[in-house]
Design goal:
The chain is an alpha/beta fold. The chain has 18 helices and 12 strands. The chain is 45% helix and 14% strand. The strands form 2 sheets. A 9-stranded mixed β-sheet has the order 1-2-6-5-4-3-7-8-9, with helices on both faces. The protein has a 3-stranded antiparallel β-sheet with strand order 10-12-11.
């Protein structure tokens, strides 16, 4: 077996998390030495009891490792240890980083300039549009968008980065040959073409509930800062924010409706000192000068366009960040329905507004 195979094998042993893994490495030097150690030698390590020693000694090293290596090759993945040059430097810098990460896609040097975008799995229209706008602009500037490929804000963040021809990284709470949620199969493939999908778990690991706090720790660890967009009081997104604070990274929060349960978590973060953000520029200004110098300048979005014809300007003025039905636009404009419909199409083609389901419209 090669050296990396032992790293992969130790990561598969039941009962060995990252803290125990690092403790054993610090004592024995290499994973190979750990597998060669006797029960007594293993239990000489502080806090390593008979149960963990038995798990190591009873592990079917050759059989299990060969099976895992076959899966890694079959699904086109790479595995990096914390000692490999390919291992993300932001992640290596946190306390007790994952000893091993599985990667499908590519990791590049530019991914060190990364921001995590996380939030509700069932966002409001406001949350969706905000996540789309912030992720879009950050990606266009050259910032890698990191998230967890969950439903809602996570998926929107990844898709927005891809649409903007930027880079994105998804961190899973399961193995890389397990698609979770299953409807994100296509998205996962798109992400690997515009960045990478990462996991610290063995290939076939199921998305167990206990895996996700660990996953959230990696999301924040890969990033210079974490922005939370809509989160309830007990949201997993708040766990990501707490990890970011522990890792010495920035925490940002988008304010929300004080009457909405989906905004209580983000508003609470702001009360506790997270920076209130309204757009991507609020995030970028917290970066060090040397980081900002690498970013691509893009034009700040315009509000009302002075070049619009008067009828388009009128309709545009009636549409804001809160969705409005076409019938309401017609009523407020005092223009014929056909005229309003035509103007809405023109504004949408110019990228100034967006049509939602049910003939609802919002500003982009």
């Amino acid at each position: 077996m090669q050296d990396k195979s032992y790293w992969i094998a130790l990561n598969m042993v039941e009962g060995i998390g990252r803290i125990t893994y690092h403790k054993l490495i610090n004592y024995f030097g290499t994973p190979e030495n750990i597998f060669c150690a006797s029960d007594k030698e293993l239990m000489d390590v502080y806090d390593i009891g008979g149960k963990i020693a038995h798990s190591i000694k009873s592990f079917k090293l050759k059989e299990n490792t060969e099976e895992e290596l076959e899966k890694i090759e079959k699904y086109g993945c790479n595995v990096y240890t914390v000692n490999d040059k390919e291992y993300p430097p932001n992640l290596r810098a946190i306390p007790d980083p994952p000893p091993v990460i599985y990667v499908k896609g590519s990791l590049i040097k530019d991914d060190t300039i990364a921001v995590a975008v996380v939030g509700s799995r069932m966002p409001t229209t406001y949350g969706k549009l905000t996540a789309e706008n912030i992720s879009n602009r950050l990606a266009k500037m050259g910032v890698t968008i990191v998230s967890g490929m969950a439903r809602g804000i996570d998926s929107i963040a990844h898709k927005s980065a891809i649409t903007s021809k930027g880079r994105t990284i998804a961190v899973l709470g399961c193995g890389l040959n397990v698609i979770y949620p299953p409807e994100n199969f296509k998205l996962m493939n798109e992400i690997t073409g515009h960045g990478a999908v990462i996991s610290e778990f063995p290939m076939s690991a199921k998305p167990n509930k206990m895996n996700f706090p660990q996953r959230n720790r990696v999301i924040s660890g890969l990033s210079l800062g974490t922005v939370v967009i809509e989160a309830a009081e007990n949201s997993g997104s708040l766990i990501t924010a707490m990890h970011a604070l522990e890792q010495g990274r920035e925490v940002f929060a988008v304010p929300g409706n004080i009457n909405s349960a989906k905004s209580r978590g983000t508003n609470c973060l702001i009360k506790r000192g997270a920076k209130l953000v309204e757009d991507a520029e609020d995030i970028i200004e917290e970066f060090p000068d040397d980081v900002r110098s690498y970013l691509k300048p893009i034009e700040k979005p315009n509000g009302e366009d002075d070049t619009l014809p008067s009828d388009e300007k009128l309709i545009f003025s009636l549409i804001d960040d809160e969705s409005i039905h076409i019938d309401r636009v017609i009523e407020q404009s005092n223009l014929p329905a056909g005229v309003v419909s035509g103007i809405l199409v023109k504004l949408e083609l110019k990228g100034l507004i967006k049509q939602l389901s049910g003939k609802m419209f919002v500003r982009c």
